[in-house]
Amino acid sequence: MKIISVHKHSLGAELGLQPGDKIEAIDNSRVKDILDYRFKITDDQILLKVRQNGEVVEYDLEKDADDDLGLKFEDMRIRHCANDCIFCFVDQNPEGMRRGMYFRDGDFRMSFLHGHYITLTNMGWKELKRVVEQRLTPLYISVHATDLDKRLEMFLYGKDDHLLSKFEYLTENGIELHSQIVLCPTWNDGAFLEKTISDIHQYSPMARSMSIVPAGLTKHREGLPYIPPVTKEYAEKTILLYEEFDKRFKHADGSRFIFLSDEWYLRIGKEVPAIDYYDTLDLEENGVGQVRNFKEKWTDFDIPAFEKETHITIGSGKLISDTFRNWFIPKLNAISNLTVNYIPIENNFYGKDEVTVTGLLTGGDIVQQLQGQDLGEKVIFSDRIVNETSGAKTLDDLTLIDISNEIGVPFLVTPDEPKSFFEIIQL
After folding, report:
1. Does domain 3-73 bear CATH number 2.170.270.10?
2. What is the pTM of this model?
């Protein structure tokens, strides 16, 4: 592992470690990545091997168990997914986007660190044992189907990946697993869905949850297998079926095991469940509970004083537009001296009927639909539309300044909570 910086007053600095040095081993065991380093550095006595100027230097250290060396390393090389799933969003991107938009993440370390869902197909027993040894829990697993023939059909992986054996090994050894099913009409629903839920539920309570989310389909599916769209009627039937499964498949303590993502409810104009539905699980980044958490944050909040008339515009994707129009925007417009205009944005880039979530809006669509409008003093969107790792750019590589220049007023993003929202208004 290559060091890129050393904290000035750290143990690493005292040892004379420099940027460019490489950590070769700790206690004669090769250091594979940052997680491996963190696990091995916690001993109070270690033998550290560092490659400096072409030579390996050994340091025999005694330290407190929680003492770090103050080192920063180059980014990990992320492992590529081994599948070619029929619904993979990466394959539904148009040509000409930045390189990262075509990368399929299948790395268990990113699952542990950031909650990314992985399939386990590319994990052998050596890596599974590492997960157990280093207590990399919880992990987030994309299951989709447990029937072997259906998995081969949908994953296009080519062989039995022994999913249930991996679930059994990990859960029996104390690793919590959150799972998801991307539901594709006519593919993994019906009897396949029931079997998948039942097969994973047997590993409760260490199999902590199962989220069911609708397949995200774009208009760019040329050459890909046909997947019927999730219609309003299909969503209604799925919710009814879910309510039956929810009663049957609980944890032993009575807590909920299966969760529907918000999109199912929003598609049919139905109110999302109450806050106690979600128990204590944080599945918000998978679209489970985002709307309810948003409403909870905005139900009771400190209203700032606006000493002068303030006029702004808020935008979002179409999926959440009813909630904004009927609940959120009236709440804001009730604040003295604040006028809020609302403009829902159609996703022409991915398909205006296919993709309606805010997080997949592009800068180009936002600019096109805001230009020429009375926007007031500034425009505010959720920060879900930008990716910080790409330098706070939208999916089509526009910066906030780019959009501001095109629409003629400041374009800003904020987390979905009152404090940040009002701070950015009053900048």
Report:
1. no
2. 0.91
